[in-house]
Amino acid sequence: MDVTLATILLGILLAVLIVIPRLRSKSDQPEKVTSNAQKQAFKTYSKAEVALHNKRTDCWIIIKEKVYDVTSYVEEHPGGDAILDHAGDDSTEGFYGPQHATRVFEMIDDFCIGDLEK
Q1: d(Cα 92, Cα 66) in Å, to the nearest integer?
Q2: Distance in angstroms (rounded) separating the CA atoms of residues 37 and 108
Q3: Is residue 71 within 8 Å of 111, Cβ to Cβ?
Q4: Model-level pTM?
Q5: Is pLDDT at 32 greater than 60 in this prediction?
Q6: In the chain, what are the domains?
Q7: Phi and psi of 72, rounded to 5°?
Q8: Three-state SS for 7?
Q9: pLDDT in tens, 42-92
């Protein structure tokens, strides 16, 4: 009987030591801030709709069949106005060019607003 009780108590103690720190670490993490693009409804856009957003103050691009609103990034783009070369159009080739650091592949998702209509 003593062995059974000791086993149960040991199991409870281990569970507490494993579960509580995990719960605490999850609640200590700050909430992810959502960008303006993520707040918009994710939907499907035609190529004609994307083409309307072709200027510095309203810039959408297409990368691999996904639509991105990069308007807020245009002024920050390290390549200057090169981002506007394909505003309102497909930027896949330029996006995957050798000039981009791997960081850009992580940050682009923040600007995704939908899929390109097939």
Answers
A1: 10
A2: 11
A3: no
A4: 0.64
A5: no
A6: 44-116 (3.10.120.10)
A7: -70, -15
A8: helix
A9: 799 999 999 999 999 999 999 999 999 999 999 988 888 888 999 999 999
